[in-house]
Give the backbone structure.
Amino acid sequence: MTRLGDLERAVMDVLWDVVPGTSDGVTVREVADALDGRELAYTTVMTVLDRLAGKGMVQREREGRAWRYRPAASREAHIAQLMLDALDLGGSRDAALVRFARSVTGTEAEVLRAALGSEAGLTGPGSADDGTELTDRVDGPAGRRPAGEAAER
């Protein structure tokens, strides 16, 4: 997965924060307006969105003469993919996972336990049986889905 530059990240943050999953997306003008503190030219925002579309980070659909843009995947799915990519950088995946698990807070550890328990079909606090929903599943290395592919439910 391609890492994002500062401006690309700012544009993606606008899309993730402004565009609900059921939305038709936003126009270049709407993104530029949401980036109000940056004083960017319309064409700059248009170029960034075009590049993000080329990288598969956004989906776009023609509406008249304009394009409407929306994220190809959720922020959470993107971050999960970045974490998986980091594990592929070399060394021991197991050692990196253990180091990561030892560095999280108690609350974060509970979230991980719930996700792992749900994946294994277990019940208990935080599992699928307690009314909470664990979303944006990312498959492991052998069956890894691209970031833009829909999560299984």
In short: Residues 106-120 form the longest helix (15 residues). Strands lie at 58-63, 66-71. Confidence is low (pLDDT under 50) at residues 126-153. Residues 76 and 100 are 17 Å apart (CA to CA).
